[in-house]
């Protein structure tokens, strides 16, 4: 019986040797390619140096034993992922971020731009932020995005809205302030990744009755602003008309003053000598025009005014 077992073992070793010699590959050996823009962690699963703390950063074509080792690949470029309720974006499931503002549920379609980094934790140390990420979460990029990152965004939206003391009616005018606070919160929550941007991919969704109340309040504010604008416009036009009338009146006053001053100067300049000089000029002009003849005498018929006409035959 033992002899038969020994023969089976020899046969198995023979087959293994044949496979190894013919293919040149030890059974269990796997190949992974880490493309440019990605970084890989080669992690030993067994042995004295197992664990993430002894993992090596790898790139290019990587050979490893699929039974005792694993290679996890992470994108080191910035990638934008949408968390929306739309089945055509991101996941076919509803991944919109739901948080609370003033006790009211708010649903948001959110885009997050993030990436992983091989930056060293301390200068000169082999351990990187990628090591710390995997040591903390033990998840692939997709698993992390679908669970921890989405949950972190929800918590950061709720916390930021509370820190900013927002109410549902304040959301339309404070969206940018909110997302800026969320981006900062998300980066602080996940220091092992690079969070470049957080953005809203559409308007925030509130319960219908709250949204209707906000719309009515906004319409009332717009109407009040329009009325105030019109009032100021009328006042400005009235002030302009008054100013114009004052300007025109002042112009007339100034013109009258100028005319009066001119007349005064003219009157002050008329003297007897000036009058005599003007008389002599006129006389000289008359003499120069005289042709040497006396002016004709025009005789008028002797007409007696008031006399009655004589009767015929008298």
Automatic annotation (TrEMBL):
Residues of the signal peptide: 1-24
PROSITE patterns in alphabetical order: PROKAR_LIPOPROTEIN
Keyword Signal: yes
Pfam families found in the cross-reference section: Band_7 (PF01145)
GO biological process: proteolysis
Keyword Cell division appears in the UniProt entry: no
Alphabetized UniProt keyword annotations: Hydrolase, Protease, Signal
GO molecular function, one term: peptidase activity
Boundaries of every Band domain copy: 33-235
Protein name: Membrane protease subunit, stomatin/prohibitin
